[in-house]
Amino acid sequence: MTVSDVKIQVDEVYKIFGSRPDDAMAALHAGAGKAEVLKKTGCIVGLRGIDFSIRRGETFVIMGLSGSGKSTLIRHFNRLIEPTAGRILVDGRNIMDMNARELLAFRRSGISMVFQRFGLLPHQTVLENTICGPILQGVDRREALTRGMEQLELVGLKGFEHRFPRQLSGGMQQRVGLARALATQADVLLMDEAFSALDPLIKSDMQEQLKQIQARLKKTIIFITHDLDEALHLGDRIAILKDGELRQVGTGEEILFRPADDYVERFVRKVDLSRALHANDAFAKVPVLAQAEATGGRAAALLRQHPAVIVTHGTEMRVVTSGEPDSAKRAACIDAAATLRQSFLLLADEDAVVVMDGGAPAGVLTRELAFKALCRSSGAAYLDHRQRPQVLDDVVKRSSNAADDRLGQGLCRA
Amino acid sequence: MADNFPELLDTRGLRFAIDDGFSWVVANYGDTLERLLAPLLKLLGAMEAFLQWLPWYVTIAGIALLTYSASRNLRMTGSAIVMLFFIGAVGLWNDAMATVALMLAATVVAVVVGIPLGIVMARSDRLRSIALPLLNIMQTLPIFVYLIPFVMLFGPGKIPAILATVFFAIPPVIRLTDLGIRQVDGEVVEAIVAFGATPSQKLVKVQIPLALPTIMAGINQTTMMALSMVVIASMIGAGGLGYQVLQGIQRLEASRGLVAGIAIVFLAVIFDRIAQSYGRRAQKHLEHGE
Q1: What is the ipTM of this complex?
Q2: Distance from CA of B203 to the nearest CA of A (A)
Q3: Is A339 on the interface with B (CB under 8 A)?
Q4: N or C: which end of chain B has fewer CB within 10 A?
Q5: B29: distance to nearest CA of chain A, Å?
Q6: Which member of A78, A105, A164 has the closest CB to residue B194?
């Protein structure tokens, strides 16, 4: 990561709640724990030595359970909460050094925010709410209204602009919240448990919409959630926070497959790996032949080194697994970015599906490969802790014959 | 007769000191204070003169219109007209207008002073912890107790009457402004701050509009308390309906007291309905839908 890629840098941020922050800081530096600080000074350690950076244009998820300090942390980015110590640099500028006027300007045009319970003004219409940012920026009212309408259209609320927030459903209200945040045209978007108050179906709709909007606008998004599935789905990178301390920062895969400690491991244990892994992680690259090239001999030669060969027939894909050219079977296609879970339905009917990468066939995914990928991943997650997964132990224990033993070992090795 | 309780402290010295101090203030600053408050007297005089000059049917039509625009209720409007007509018919019109003028002037002063005080109180917990007991004392201290300094300062007349009324009536509007602002949803306030509102923008765009129903309830209570002061205020020269009641007592004329008392009740009902309807409409505005 080069310096110019960094949009926001959080540098050793501490937040102490209570009347004796200096004593508490001294105790922390002397190596005291959170409980000890509370006992000695009566202060609560909200955040402790938070240090990470966020890249330009990335969706950075901060995840933790309630009380972990995530909502405290996100409020530091626009100084709704002031840190006790530390710096936060946005575009290389320490926001803690800003005076009142600079801070107002920064809040107006540099950063915007979406709230868990929406935070809409109940006495103003949807459109009035949406243009709140531009109006505070001092944008001319007519221009602000145009901007507001654009954003409402973007989030799919055209036609609702003259309603009041209470007349809308939760999902629609949060779309207003999103439109309001986007209307300021700020680079950085803070989302504080933005979708946590919504029904599951509406929540996933909103996640998709956010992804689409993000693909177009390339904002730097800081997203707070307590929901790991949401974090994995949205986040380019994820930070895990516990008791005000950062436990791990990494991509979804790093968090899932190389958890930094027991806490993170316990956190991710229940994740359905078939949703977290993509066809990309599991498929085997195989040669692709046009129909004209696919003579029996050629295919047979290739099959000695590869598990299968793909033969294209116009837009139709066939998979050859044995020497007989007639053995070619029509196969369904799946995108490399699809999750393994999505491939299960296809694999239930067929032995192999063709994995498409950027519209061109790249390889095949078989049931065997899919299973192997799932095992390899959970194996890796457990091996880091020198722990054997319990389910595998059971398999080995119960198996009395050699074949079962081999299966057990095979699974472990895989 | 000697007191049953042993005399532990000699309070006479302290009381003399307070009384002398007060006399000194009256002697040295009485004129200055009176001059300072002259605009208030002018406001009251002008309002009274205006209301008494206005033809009665115009006043009734005006109040009826106000009632209707607040309540959108024809029955309420009709009963307001009937009540005002009664007041005029029993020969208390001018007294009633004097009372309304005193009540409105006192309410206006109480609101103008009380709302900013309530706003300041909502901002600072420390100030609140000082102000709340003071307000409690103000509301429980018998009203005659603060008639004394005002009468001493200004002599009997309209100024002490209006000041005593303001003091008596101001606590609800301060209290409910503070409460209303504190009750505003914290996330809405946080949102507007996050979008770069200054403290005064936060106040004007969010806190006051959202606290308005509660503030209106405070203004309503203040109006009612101001009206309830008119009889007592008449003892120090406020005139109006209260003076009629006072004369009823002095001359032992039950009828005079009763008729003036009913007129006061009618005024209270009319103004209470107007203020409450406005409060309810402000609330409804916030609860669109559902």
Answers
A1: 0.76
A2: 13
A3: no
A4: N
A5: 43
A6: A78
Contacts of B192 in chain A (CB under 8 A): 121, 132
Give the number of A-B residue pairs with CB atoms closer than 8 Å. 71
Task: Give the residue on A whose Cα is nearest the Cα of B185.
Answer: A119
Q: What percent of chain A shows pLDDT beyond 90?
A: 48
Q: Could A123 and B210 be called an inter-chain contact, meaning their C-beta atoms sit closer than 8 Å? A: yes
Q: What is the pTM of this model?
A: 0.77
Contacts of B205 in chain A (CB under 8 A): 121
- pLDDT confidence of A2, banded at 50, 70, 90? low
Using the predicted structure, report yes or no on whether residue A413 has a pLDDT greater than 60.
no
pLDDT tens digit string along A219-255?
999 999 998 889 988 999 999 999 999 999 999 888 8
pLDDT value at position A385? 46
A121 touches chain B (CB under 8 A): yes
Q: Quick: pLDDT tens for A48-103.
A: 999 999 999 999 999 988 889 999 999 999 999 999 999 999 999 999 999 999 99
Chain B residues in contact with A115 by the CB 8 A cut-off are 187, 190-191
**Residue B88 CB-density burial (10 A; 0-12 exposed, 13-18 middle, 19+ buried):** middle
State whether residue B7 sits within 8 Å of chain A by CB. Answer: no
